[in-house]
Design a protein that fits this description.
Layout (H helix, E strand, L loop, with lengths): L6 H18 L9 E2 L2 E2 L3 H12 L1 H16 L20 H20 L3 H29 L9 H9 L2 H21 L5 H8 L1
Length: 198
C-alpha cells in the first residue's frame, strides 16, 4: 500500500527545492554564464542528486514542487524568474525535464546501489535533461517565441555544447556523491528504514 509523505520526506524535499533555487540563480552572481538564451546553472546537478538520494518517487515529487512553486510566482527559476508566463519561456522544457531526470535516476539506483550504476544513472539523467530541454527550446523558438536571427536546430545544440563538459563532470560527481551519501549516511538513517518498511 502506498504511504503518504512523512515529516522527514517533506524536510528533504524542501531542502532540494531550495538547492534547485540556488543552483538556478548562480548566474546572478556570474552573469557571463549565459550562452544564447540558456543560463549555465547547477540545476541539472541537483535534479540528478535529488533522484539518486531521495529515490524515484520522492525525487520526482520534489521537482514537481519546484516547478509548481516557480509557476505560482516564487522567484526560483533562473535569473530569479517565476510566474505562469514561464511556461512560454524557451527554457521551460529544462524545468519539466528535471522531473523526468530525477525519476529515472532514482529508479535506476533503486535496482542496484553500486558506483557504476549511480554514475550510469546520473549520465542518463543528464542526457534526458539535454534531449528534452533542447528540443523544447527549439520548438519554442520556432512556434511561439521570437527566435534569434538564423536560428537552427544545429544552433540550439551548439549552445548546449558549451555547458555540456561541465554537466558531464557534475553528473559523474553527483553519482559518486549520492553513492557515498547512501553508504555513509542514508542507509543508516531513519529515512531509509522508513522507506524500506513502507
Amino acid at each position: 500500500m502506498k504511504r503518504g509523505l512523512r515529516t522527514i520526506d517533506l524536510t528533504l524535499a524542501s531542502m532540494f527545492v531550495a538547492l534547485m533555487a540556488v543552483g538556478a540563480n548562480i548566474t546572478s552572481f556570474v552573469p557571463f554564464m549565459i550562452i544564447g538564451g540558456v543560463p549555465i546553472t547547477l540545476q541539472t546537478f541537483f535534479a540528478i542528486l535529488a533522484g539518486a538520494v531521495l529515490g524515484s518517487r520522492l525525487g520526482a515529487i520534489t521537482l514537481c514542487v519546484y516547478a509548481f512553486a516557480g509557476l505560482a510566482g516564487a522567484p526560483i527559476f533562473a535569473k530569479f524568474g517565476g510566474g505562469f508566463a514561464s511556461l512560454l519561456n524557451p527554457t521551460f522544457g529544462f524545468i519539466l525535464s528535471f522531473i523526468i531526470t530525477a525519476y529515472v535516476t532514482g529508479k535506476i539506483v533503486e535496482k542496484k546501489r553500486s558506483i557504476p550504476v549511480y554514475i550510469a544513472a546520473a549520465i542518463l539523467g543528464m542526457v534526458i535533461n539535454y534531449v528534452f530541454g533542447t528540443n523544447w527550446m527549439y520548438l519554442a523558438y520556432k512556434l511561439w517565441f521570437t527566435a534569434p536571427e538564423g536560428f537552427t536546430y544545429q544552433m540550439a545544440w551548439l549552445w548546449m555544447a558549451v555547458p555540456l563538459p561541465k554537466d558531464i563532470l557534475l553528473a559523474v560527481f553527483a553519482g559518486l556523491m549520492a553513492h557515498r551519501l547512501e553508504h555513509r549516511v542514508i542507509a543508516r538513517s531513519q529515512f531509509r528504514k522508513i522507506n524500506r518498511a513502507a
